[in-house]
Design a protein that fits this description.
The chain has 96 residues and is mainly alpha-helical. The protein contains three helices and no strands. α2 packs across α3.
């Protein structure tokens, strides 16, 4: 059972990095540092969006509009950190 919890923690950690990559990539696209018409950039962007949007969109629908500021990744990261801590402090020690 601990192996399953370790895999869950690893997946949560990887998803954290995907969310951070999504934020950085969106900034690079917004400031025209990289160009969306490049096929490699477009494929990376589409992959990251496909991984993050199913969880970010419901959060965006519930948050108030803040203009150009998107707080959904921060809320999702806080949720992931909370879930990781619950697993590490409460679930993991009680598993044999």
């Amino acid at each position: 059972m601990r192996a399953i919890l370790d895999v869950v923690l690893l997946i949560l950690s990887l998803y954290t990095w995907i969310i951070i990559a999504s934020a950085v990539l969106s900034w690079l696209l917004a400031f025209n540092v990289i160009n969306y018409s490049n096929s490699v950039v477009r494929s990376i962007w589409n992959t990251i969006q496909a991984l993050t949007e199913p969880l970010l969109q419901p959060i965006r629908n519930r948050l108030p509009r803040m203009g150009a500021i998107d707080l959904a990744p921060i809320v999702l990261l806080i949720g992931i950190f909370f879930l990781e801590r619950v697993i590490v402090y409460y679930v993991y020690p009680s598993v044999f």
